Amino acid sequence: MSLVHEIDYGTPVSKSEKLVTLTIDGMKVQVPEGTSIMRAAMEVGNQIPKLCATDMLDAFGSCRLCLVEIEGRNGTPASCTTPVADGIVVKTQTERLKQIRKGVMELYISDHPLDCLTCSANGDCELQDMAGVVGLREVRYGYEGENHTKLGKDESNPYFTYEQSKCIVCNRCVRACEEVQGTFALTISGRGFGSRVSPGMNETFLSSECVSCGACVQACPTATLNEKAMFEIGTPEHSVVTTCAYCGVGCTFKAEMRGDELVRMVPYKDGKANRGHSCVKGRFAYGYASHKERILKPMIRASIQEPWREVSWDEAIGYAASEFKRIQAKYGRRSVGGITSSRCTNEETYLVQKLIRGAFGNNNVDTCARVCHSPTGYGLSQTYGTSAGTQDFDSIEETDVVLVIGANPTDGHPVFGSRMKKRLRQGAKLIIIDPRKIDLVRTPHVQADYHLPLRPGTNVAMVTALAHVIVTEGLVNEQFVRERCEWDEFQEWAAFVADERHSPEAVEKYTGVDPAQVRAAARLYATGGNAAIYYGLGVTEHSQGSTTVIAIANLAMATGNVGRNGVGVNPLRGQNNVQGSCDMGSFPHELSGYRHVSDDATRALFESVWGVPLDDEPGLRIPNMFDAAVDGTFKGMYVQGEDILQSDPDTRHVSAGLGALECLVVQDLFLNETANYAHVFLPGCSFLEKDGTFTNAERRIQRVRKVMAPKNGYADWEITILLSNALGYQMDYAHPSEIMDEIARLTPTFTGVSYKKLEDLGSVQWPCNEKAPEGTPVMHIGGFVRGKGKFMLTEYVPTDERTGPLFPLLLTTGRILSQYNVGAQTRRTANVVWHGEDVLELHPHDAENRGIRDGDFVKLESRAGSTTLKARISDRMSPGVVYTTFHHPLTQANVVTTDFSDWATNCPEYKVTAVQVAPSNGPSQWQEEYEKLSRESRRIAEAAE
Amino acid sequence: MSHSPHHHDHSHGAAHSQSGSHKTTDDRLVYMANQIATFFSTQPHAEAVDGTRQHIRKFWDPRMRTRIAAIVEHGGTGLSPIAKEALEGLSRPAVS
User: Fold this and answer.
1) In whole angstroms, what is the distance from residue A228 CA to residue A209 CA?
2) How far apart are CA B41 and CA A792, in angstroms?
């Protein structure tokens, strides 16, 4: 193995279809019109010296190193800013060019510290390379003159340093922050000799608006911006291309290694989801994998009052299997079940559901999608015929109108958020439907055309009102509807939404939004060109989550915004492999590929390969499991890589359910909150330690590659095999590729998927089968998967979670950029400098009425429970609405959330909880009790000598 | 039938009065059945009943269906008319 070196073509690719032929250094070259001469030269392997150019950024033309000569033209133009032209003859290496370049480099080096041997970028420095390339052998000016070589270092960012003395002011970092990330946190301050890269207004990186995405570090050609790991470890010697284990974007990274030590994660330009970009989590927050709290040995205990006892793998697996068998013998076949992990690979998820169906003999399997995007699966399968988003991420590049509803892409899906911002800066229009003033409402060079700040819980009223405007104002794309959709259902729907009670004016009493703004937004969506809807958990996590997904699907069909690039319905999936875990048959009513367990032919197919009869009845969903546990009919659970105690709503009910189990097996990296109630702990492994695949929000199946041996001894898929075999249901796979081969045999949308194909193509988007051997970037082209698109009626039903005198505010919960889900991973990294605790955001008016100041401890109470946390006063919130995150276990925001859930899927209503907020001087009783339980439950007995 | 959300065929109130962690499983099942019936209640009556029934048949585990069947047999207190009619036509699972 060696380092994966990606070619830097110097300037971005041109998308022109018109080809231009020119001659470079005597070679004929044919490239698309608009290509730079620099890129055209690199296409034929001729690397023109450069410093300020890199193909992630637009050409800038400042370093004067990439000059060329063109026959018949005067001077020496910069090859990065000069486009190709038909018939031109270019020379990249002449005596004149050599002299100019050497002179330029001489000037650069005269103001650069000559500490190459001890520099963190030694061997990884473009300035060093260029000095060699131009043959620089002396610096005639000396080093005594005025210079920058004694300037200080900014080490405020936990992951990288800014060493000003090494800056050549090439602007690459500033441009990366603008063009790639879209944060505009960096600038060049001063003029002439005084010009310096400056975060914000001459602030430190940490105190500036920098979001630590790493784009500047990636772009820097010197050691000016460099990972601290490069200082501490040294340069890497080999790299492995793999997929990030955070969020549903699914960024591709090069894991750059020295031996089996991970030096750094570098975003891979060929990654089709991220196109070379990254965020603070994927780029830097991987230290949890070697955190001291990670558990590496299996443990068991007879009751949760006892301390844990470290045991051998054989003993732990044997004990778990015997307990599950005992429970089933006593309470029946359906008294046990399990939860697959959306953080684990497709292959691992597939095996867990196979274990439950095959070894346990029932369908009591569910996954975290239950509490996030299960309504997406239901709503889109009913209307379009498939349980997934319609587009690839590249589609945004052809979008004219972006409608974001209930999503906060710059925090939740930051790399895609950056791509969205780029398109918006190019002129696409933006509609945001969200109770909060999320960053996209107004951020540098982006401003929403319409922000509709609706009251939480009124999505259906809002989206149906948009449909009302589209129908009553004659904005329906009738040709599309007649050709692609069920006409009778459409007519029924059109009559339904046209009713006056769905007008923006009529629903204002629910939504609180100015009807004129709603009308204008509807007109823009219907008439502004390619319109695409992006949505998140602000849509799904409601009692009418599925209804809103259906309403969104209706809207896209009515306007003809499905089935081509630039449009569509795009759920921004939460966890890295939540799409995959759903695809793999993690739901209790479906086998892989979304086929119901009651379908005899499907079961027969699986039975023939699995060699075991399958239950034809749907199993329990996660919240039903807790109910059944409390009722005494559900007694054993195998939970892989999820922390349901912290992530699921109404914590007291969850803890009652978990506490009622006779055998809870948790497989995880850490003793998470769920493990407080566990009897068997099986140490899991990180994404760095195993092979497999993840499927991202655009249905893209990507390889996860092992870069080091599992610290716990086994990959997660191997542990599931051990457990299954101990249960008496034999599994025999030598490598995850064999599991994928079985998935392909059994799943119509995966029949063309294999590790060989993933090696060849890099990634594929399902469906990948005989009809689409290289996958399907955009779905429903020419027709819907279900045949004709189906309009469905979406009556608004207010949630029963109501505000009143005791609970006058509405709480909505969510995520922030630096932390991920329950925080199990990110809390164990330096990301805590940005978010060390959950805080309650509330509007200044609500704070003033309650005598609350910024930073005060407050009690947050609902009908379900109470917790305490610090207040942050923010005008991002509307009056009457408060917000917090659920990243920290001591806050336990879900003690407050209720058990109301989506009518179709039981997805919890996290986004609407009636609460009261009051000043507080200490933790709630629940927090004190839970902290004690947690401390005692995590005790590990000293090993006997 | 009326399409006004305030005249809807749903009886969430019964379960809602026991909001939070104090609901029994029976309360939850009745509440969930009513929620499902509410969604389908925009459709003609026979379709609404059938849609509700099929949804419960497709997504509820046998012990949940057995349990709600027992509630129906005892008069179906708290169930909305559509939910009740849907459940009356739903056969008990063979094995719970």
Assistant:
1) 20
2) 12
Chain B neighbors of A502, CB-CB under 8 A: none
CA separation for the pair A134, A130 (Å, rounded): 6
A772, burial (CB in 10 Å: exposed 0-12, middle 13-18, buried 19+): middle
| Residue A383 CB partners (closer than 8 Å, separation 6+) | A550, A553, A554, A557, A786, A789, A790, A791, A792
Among candidates A241, A246, A242, A248, which has minimal Cα distance to A696?
A248
Q: Which residue of A has its CA nearest to B11?
A: A800
Is A865 close to B25, i.e. CB distance below 8 A?
A: no
Q: Which residues contact A283 (CB under 8 A, 6 or more apart)?
A: A159, A212, A213, A214, A253, A265, A267
Contacts of A589 in chain B (CB under 8 A): 58-59
Closest residue in chain A to residue B19, using alpha carbons only: A863
CB contact under 8 A, A903 and B35: yes
- pLDDT at position B20 over 80: no
The beta-carbon neighbor of B58 closest among A596, A801, A903 is: A596
The predicted pLDDT at position B10 comes to 37
Separation of alpha carbons A580 and A582, rounded Å: 5
Per-residue pLDDT tens digits for A384-397:
999 899 999 999 99
B21 vs A630: CB contact, 8 Å cut-off?
no
Contact A715, A722 (CB under 8 A): no
Share of chain B above pLDDT 70, in %: 75
Nearest-by-Cβ selection for B63 from A633, A801, A905: A633
Q: Which of residues 625-684 of A touch B (CB under 8 A)?
A: 627-628, 630-631, 633, 650, 652-653, 656
> Do A44 and A60 form a contact (C-beta atoms < 8 A)?
no
Query: In the numeric block, which tokens belong to residue A117?
Result: 């041997």
What is the rounded distance in angstroms from the CA atom of residue A192 to the CA atom of residue A472? 60
Domain chopping of chain B, boundaries: 21-88
Q: How far is CA A673 from the centre of its chain?
A: 23
Put simply, the answer to whether B19 touches A628 (Cβ < 8 Å) is no
User: With contacts defined as CB-CB under 8 Å, which chain A residues touch B93?
Assistant: 617
According to DSSP, residue A940 is labeled: B
Of the candidates A460, A467, A478, A606, the residue with the CA atom closest to the CA atom of residue A538: A460
**Does the structure show a pLDDT above 60 at B1?**
no
Task: Determine the residue type at A8.
Answer: D
Omega cis (within 30) before A767: yes
Question: What is the ipTM for the molecules in this complex?
Answer: 0.91
**Whole-number pLDDT of residue A139:** 92
Res A930: pLDDT: 87
Asked if residue A791 lies in contact with residue A493, where contact means CB atoms within 8 angstroms, the answer is yes
Q: How many CB atoms are closer than 10 A to CB A743?
A: 24
Cβ <8 Å between A618 and B13: no
- CB-nearest partner of B21 from A363, A801, A864: A864
Q: Whole-angstrom Cα distance, residue A293 to residue A719? A: 20
A795 touches chain B (CB under 8 A): yes
Positions in chain A short of pLDDT 50: 945
Distance, CA of A623 to CA of A509 (rounded, Å): 33
Chain A residue with minimum CA distance to B54: A904
Res B95: pLDDT? 58
Of residues A557, A145, A581, the one with CA closest to residue A374? A581
Q: pLDDT tens-digit profile of A222-270?
A: 999 999 999 999 999 999 999 999 999 999 999 999 999 999 999 999 9
Residue of B5, B8, B38 lying closest to A903 (CB–CB): B38
